[in-house]
Design brief:
By secondary structure, the protein is α/β, with parallel strands linked by helices. 47% of the residues lie in helices and 12% in strands. It folds into three domains: 4-54, no CATH class; 66-134, Orthogonal Bundle (Helicase, Ruva Protein, domain 3), CATH 1.10.8; 137-297, Rossmann fold (3-Layer(aba) Sandwich). The chain has helices at 11-26, 47-54, 66-79, 86-95, 100-116, 123-130, 136-145, 163-174, 218-229, 242-248, 251-266, 283-292; strands spanning 154-158, 178-183, 199-203, 213-214, 235-240, 270-276, 294-297. A seven-stranded parallel beta sheet has the order 4-3-2-5-6-1-7, sandwiched between helices. α5 (100-116) packs across α6 and α7 (136-145) packs across α8 (163-174).
Length: 299
């Protein structure tokens, strides 16, 4: 079942879903549920339904990275018997970044255009088809050139994914700042966004042999940030996963954590940013965060 988050608006539908899940589980059936956020982050979700879901395995599926998009395009192009050079595939993969559905849609458009217009599949054709998308990363860079941030200040960047935040960090690192990223995304998926690599901590309970991880412990995270701020020269910190921290502890604890951190940053040479999708938290919680920090709305 997809779009589970919409059940948050209907208590009767949630009660019915609890009965459905109980029946399927008792019948030894497998159940796959999909949502755009974790169950604990869905406003209005009942404890009963949340408890049923938490009994199973919860997996955070992120958008495919560049290498994965290239591989998907090659497989899908082969299925459609569409011949494209590696250069064209890379060109598409760099611009169509949201999800697999968009990649498939783009290939369908290419097939339709080339067939109806009797045109060869070359970069000129692909460029015309993708014009409405624009070169996304370059567009973000142009936008973030105009954004002014200063040491000692804390910013709430409202965006669907931590993309503008990372572009801003890459810009500041190019100006000589040190960089720290604490993120819910697997670090391997964001390293390509930086010419100079920042320190990246993967915010997760999972143990990794390949990445440096940090658990969703407010005490541990503030210690890591304090260590970074004690380093030489100016720095910038990007924290992506505040909603994950709130669901792992509670919002009041996260708010106390942020207020303490904001005070420390104000007396440092560092810039502190939080990347947050407004849809992942309650409106009143967003309002409180907006009062505590300077807001950059990129949605």
């Amino acid at each position: 079942m997809d779009d589970m988050q919409f059940l948050g608006a209907s208590e009767p539908a949630q009660a019915e879903m609890v009965h459905v899940l109980d029946h399927l589980i008792d019948s030894k059936k497998q159940v796959v549920l999909a949502s755009d956020r974790l169950p604990a982050q869905i406003p209005g979700f009942s404890d009963r339904l949340n408890a049923r879901i938490q009994k199973g395995l919860t997996v955070d599926l992120q958008p495919p990275d560049l290498d994965t998009r290239v591989k998907i395009l090659k497989v899908k192009a082969q299925e459609k018997r569409l011949k494209m050079s590696d250069e064209i595939i890379s060109y598409i993969a760099e611009r169509v970044t949201a999800n697999v559905r968009d990649l498939e849609s783009t290939l369908s458009k290419i097939v339709a255009f080339s067939t109806i217009m009797k045109m060869d599949v070359d970069l000129n054709l692909i460029s015309d088809i993708l014009k409405p998308l624009a070169p996304v990363q370059e567009t973000r860079k142009e936008i973030m050139k105009e954004v002014k941030v200063a040491p000692g200040h804390c910013y709430l960047i409202e965006e669907e994914k931590p993309m503008y935040s990372n572009v801003l960090l890459a810009r500041k690192m190019g100006e000589g700042h040190r960089g720290l990223v604490i993120t819910r995304m697997n670090p391997g998926r964001i390293r390509g966004e930086f010419e100079t690599q920042p320190e990246i901590l993967w915010l997760t309970d999972k143990q990794s042999s390949q990445e440096v991880t940090v658990p969703p412990s407010l005490e541990t995270i503030i210690h890591k940030i304090q260590e970074f701020m004690e380093g030489e020269g100016p720095g910038m910190i990007v924290l992506d996963g505040i909603q994950y921290l709130a669901s792992s502890t509670n919002f009041e604890a996260v708010l106390r954590f942020l207020r303490s951190l904001i005070d420390e940053v104000s007396e440092s040479r560092c810039i502190f940013t939080i990347s947050l999708s407004p849809e992942t938290m309650k409106p009143q919680e967003i309002s409180i965060l907006e009062r505590e920090m300077e807001v950059l709305n990129m949605t």
